[in-house]
Amino acid sequence: MRIFSGIQPTGKKHLGNYIGAIRQYVDGQERAAASGDESLFCVVDLHAVTVAYDPAELRERLYDTTAVLLAAGLDPSKCVLFRQSDVPAHTELSWLLSSVVPNGRLSRMHQFRDKSGAQRELVSSGLLFYPVLMAADVLAYRADEVPVGEDQREHLELMRDAARDINRRFAPELGPGEGGKPGLLMVPEQRTPEVGARVMDLQDPTRKMSTTGGSVEGTVYVLDEGKALEKKFKRAVTDSETEIRYDRAEKPGVSNLLEILAASKRISIDEAVASMADARGYGDLKMAALTAVDEELAPLRERYAELRPDVAALEAALAQGAARATELAAGTLADVREAMGVGVPRAFSGARPGA
Ligand code: TYM
């Protein structure tokens, strides 16, 4: 079981990133190791240059994100943690994949439509190409599973189709790469958590919590603490009833708080609802969610404070990861080049035929 996921080094990481993705990475690191395979986690700096950004700030945010991942429990001796731009195989494979990805499909992607609409000056071609690079990130390692939040579904579908199309067109004799069969590329599965796959903004619970689109007061950052954290929960938007029940459509605010409570305490939604049986009102639910989040994130905040100042140590961890990632991607790239007839002719590497 090989696991791959990526995270952007933009903005501050929030509770949606943590519950939807980062916590799953730590779990994935253990599951991959238990299966005798590897897990890879990539800070995707090349994706971050597709919208307006400041180069110096990008470097800082990259260290922030790396430190958050380490503080959450990723361990470079157990997983491969690296910076995307350190491994050129990603950009090379994205170009090769572009030969099977229809342009029309890229321009219809939700993220492209949303983000291109929000750009005031330039809509870069990188923004359009974003999903192809993301497909390359995963396919370069022939990963079986991709832990992500619900919002990445469309990207995962495109990635799966790109793998299928490359396999079918250029190497059908190697197999389909899915259904337990080998292939030139593997068709990866999306893994989203049962609870917390789509954490919503506390101020507008019909919108997902997000670095760019949400409200500052409704976005809980993983490093928020004390009064700032408390204020966000106390002011969370609910509804005009008093009943605590889980109903995403009718009671989005209350349901989001229940989901945050359940995810943070690692219990089911039903158990979270039951734990609120004696609540006097929504105030108690808000306090319960706040306490659960605070307890879950306190150790992360402490470790982050220790790790973040030591940039040399962060760079050393990333360099170690990049070296291993480069080795792992080399076999896939050689095979794809061979299948597509580019470069010097050679035999298939058989590095990891998959499945
Ligand atoms: P990014 O950096 O926006 O988000 C990182 C992860 O956080 C999840 N997430 C959420 N989960 C639950 N509720 C939310 N409100 C919420 N907001 C964000 C995202 O689903 C994601 O898993 N395109 C990716 C980065 C990427 C990638 C990859 C991911 C690049 N290459 C290869 C997987 C595999 C992104 O922008 O994530």
How many H/I helices?
Answer: 13
CATH superfamily of the largest domain: HUPs
Find the structural class using helix and strand composition.
mainly alpha
Coarse shape: globular
Instruction: Output the CATH topology of the largest domain.
Output: Rossmann fold
User: How many domain modules?
Assistant: 2
Main beta-sheet annotation: 3 strands, parallel
- Order of strands across the biggest sheet? 1-2-3
What does this structure look like?
With 355 residues, the chain is mainly alpha-helical. It has 2 domains: 230 residues, 3-Layer(aba) Sandwich (Rossmann fold), CATH 3.40.50.620; 82 residues, Orthogonal Bundle (Tyrosyl-Transfer RNA Synthetase), CATH 1.10.240.10. Helices cover 52% and strands 6% of the residues. It has 13 helices and 5 strands. The chain has a 3-stranded parallel sheet, with helices on both faces. Strands 4-5 form a two-stranded parallel sheet. Helix 9 runs antiparallel to helix 12 and helix 10 packs across helix 11. The protein is globular. It starts with a strand and ends in a 15-residue tail after the last helix. Tryptophanyl-5'AMP (TYM) binds next to strand 1, helix 1 and helix 7.
Give short descriptive properties of this protein:
52% helix, binds tryptophanyl-5'AMP, Tyrosyl-Transfer RNA Synthetase, 355 residues, mainly alpha, three-stranded parallel β-sheet, globular, 5 strands, 2 domains
